[in-house]
Amino acid sequence: MNNFEGFIKTVHVNGNLSIVDIDVTSDILMKAIVIDTPETASYLKSNAKVSILFKETEVIIGLGDQSGISLQNKIPAIITHLEIGNLLCKLDLKSDAGIFTAIISAAAAVALDLKVEDEVIAMIKLNEVMLRSL
Amino acid sequence: MIQIDLNKKLQAAEGEMLLKLKIDIEKGEFVTLYGASGVGKTSTLRMISGLLNPDAGKIIVNDEVWFDQSKKINLTPQKRKVGYVFQDYALFPQMTVLENLQFAQTKKYGAKAITSLIELMELGQLQNRKPETLSGGQKQRVALARALVQQPEILLLDEPLAALDTTIRYKLQEYLKQIHSEFKLTTILISHDVSEIVKLADRVICLEDGKIINQGTPEHVFINQKLSGKFKFTGEVLKVSNEELISIVTVRIHTEVVKVVVQPEEAQNLDVGDKVLVVSKAFNPLLYKLRAR
């Protein structure tokens, strides 16, 4: 499981749902949607330290400008290692948020012509991000 | 209210161990003792039932003193209102199911009450059979019924379901749940099965070397509440298979089997039999309504 650490910046609440904005670095803001509110989960408050967890298989890889896409969790990263199998491809990635891994299809890696040292944008849907209070 | 304050020197595998426990249990509470073998769980139940004498301490059940070393009070096992169920059933082999129940019957417990208990535990078809002709699950139902005809205030269960296969265990957990509330019992269960504890217990008390190291609701003790995921189950690893670049872990959750994809590095830390928390976001699963054809 991929794991970044950050500090909660803002909690937007509506009914039983919250969208949590987390500062991972000064430039990287990540968002998670949770079925919790500050009333049901006391860690949902500004400046609380949290782990941001997401599966390797939930990472989307894009090349170039990704402004026309609905995903808001966008992490600029560099490929440090790449392993292509018959069906799947494992990418080790380095970013200001930390190192992490993505599993995408081998065909997609070939189609995008991904190589070590390439700059990519890693994206994660906000409903794929889990939080753990620290 | 049950107040237990026990001190007892025990011979453990690694030498002498001092069991030192102080537990208050509310009437009607379902408590589980959890811990490795030899930490003093069974000895605790034996001391509550009067089969083993503490070196010092007190056992007070609903204001009645069962044991008080300082006042030299020590009720015999027969005088303590305890139902005790073991893993190995301990039924009388020469008696039928019904006779086993009648033998344990207290004076106040009438024939009518036995009939309704037989009905509740679904023993009607079996009541004239001898224990040797019964399956493990059936024997344990008889053992539970026999504990209940003694009209216990406390039901002590020493891993009663550990020897049974998953499906039967699951069914008997339902019985345990039902009789605990129906008979307004205070129940103390020894169990190693995390999913069983989560299902049944109000409180789990974790023991190590004769001491309480942690206690709380099963969710609090076993399930990391700090995780925001709402799709959360405890399960047991059945199989780990390594595929290309990923690993697939087969996990039993109650009576269902599911598969979870993990990284090979994560799979390396998993062995068959390990207890795991399966957690996902509530946003991921799809629901299909089941319809009768």
From TrEMBL, chain A:
Keyword Acetylation: no
GO biological process: molybdate ion transport
Domain spans labelled Mop: 68-133
Keywords: Molybdenum
UniProt xrefs under InterPro entries: Mo/tungstate-bd_C_term_dom (IPR008995), Mop_domain (IPR004606), Transp-assoc_OB_typ1 (IPR005116)
Name by which UniProt lists this protein: Molybdopterin-binding protein
Protein's organism: Leeuwenhoekiella aequorea
From TrEMBL, chain B:
Sorted UniProt keywords: ATP-binding, Nucleotide-binding, Transport
Ranges of residues in domain ABC transporter: 1-234
GO molecular function: ATP binding; ATP hydrolysis activity
Organism domain of life: Bacteria
The protein's name in its UniProt record: Molybdate transport system ATP-binding protein
Native organism taxonomy: Bacteria, Pseudomonadati, Bacteroidota, Flavobacteriia, Flavobacteriales
